[in-house]
Structures are given as structure tokens and as C-alpha cells.
Amino acid sequence: MIDKIQRRARSRLVMISGPIASGKSTLAGEVVRLLRLEGFSVALTDLDTVAEMALPTLPDWDWAHGIHAQLVGTWLTTDIDIVVDEGTSNPTEVQQVLDQVPEGTDVLHVVLTADFDASLARARADSGRGVSKDPGFLRAEHEAYSHHVAHLPGGLRLHVEGQEPAGLARQVINSLLP
Are 41 and 79 contacting, i.e. CB atoms less than 8 angstroms apart? Predict the structure, then answer.
């Protein structure tokens, strides 16, 4: 187990960005699970969970994005070792979160790519999803993401198709804890 002094020298924020139904939540959950097994305290933040707090009366998704960014920033002011965040999909959303990150925080940005057909299958298999099951909506979101992906911060870029969540999570952790 890594001692507390070594933990503080490591990245404290893992941001996972990707298109809708690319497996961001699944990957984030697996990264959190593995980090906790290694003895780290970890907070998981997720845009959809923040938005769900106000659904179906959420007046505007911009509100959810702002509150989500503040939540990430607040967790980073605690003694939690690592914050894993998922939900951003474009440079503006990423910057909104980064604007709340305390100075000196190390950030590992994980950028996911996924195939449309596989994403649609994942969305349709998830009973908790709504509009993301609609092929037209999902295709438009994936096309928009394809224009943003080159402008997302560098870091670890992963194509999710053909890989198990545990293997993807191990790649994230290997980048976080070299």
C-alpha cells in the first residue's frame, strides 16, 4: 500500500470525458473500485447524478454543469486522495470543471472514443436511459463529440470497443500511478 506522503505526490483528479453511452460511468465505477482496493480514499462525481437531483424540473442543463463543476472543486479541497469525475464531453464543459480545481491539483484527463452502433446497443440495453436510446439523438451527439475530441485536453485516450471495463480501468490506474 502506498503511504500518505506518496499519495499526495500523485494526481488527485481523474476526469473521464466521452460521448453518450461510451461507458464513462462503467469505467469510472471500475477505476474507483480498483483504487479503493489499493487503499485510496476516492470520491466519484458524475454529471448525470447531479442533474437527477432536480429532474424532471431541472430548468437548464447549464445549471447541472455548474453545480457539477463546483462539486468536483469542493471534493478536491478535502482529504480525499483522488476524485474521479465523469460526464464532460466538450472543451467548454471540461474547462468549467477545471476552473473549479484548486491550484496545484494534478489532473489526469481520460478521453474515450466509442463506435456509434455499440453505443446505441449499450444505451438500448440500459433501462434507466431515456432520449439517448433514440438513434437520431445519439448519432447527433456522437457527431458533435467527434468535432470536440481533438480539442479535449491531452492525457490518456482510450477506444472502448473490444475492451473490458477492468482492462480499461487498469490502463487509467497505470497512467495515474506510474
Answer: yes
pLDDT at 133: 83
Task: Please state, in angstroms and rounded to a whole number, the distance separating the CA atoms of residues 169 and 30.
Answer: 6
Give the cell for residue 43: 470520491
Q: Dihedral of CA 131/62/88/36: which sign?
A: negative
User: Tens digit of pLDDT for each residue in 45-54?
Assistant: 999 899 889 9
Q: What are phi and psi of 159, to 5 degrees?
A: -95, 125
Asked if 142 and 134 touch (Cβ cutoff 8 Å), the reply is no
pLDDT in tens, 125-148: 988 877 888 899 999 999 999 999
**What's the whole-model pTM score?**
0.90
- Tens of pLDDT, residue by residue over 51-74, are 889 988 988 889 999 999 999 999
Do 83 and 68 contact (CB within 8 A), yes or no?
no
Contact 17, 84 (CB under 8 A): no
Report d(CA 134, CA 119) in Å as an integer: 11
CA–CA distances in Å: residue 149 to residues 103, 123, 133, 152: 25, 20, 22, 5
Tell me how many degrees the CA angle 23-27-32 measures, rounded to the nearest 5.
150
Give Cα 120 to chain centroid, integer Å.
19
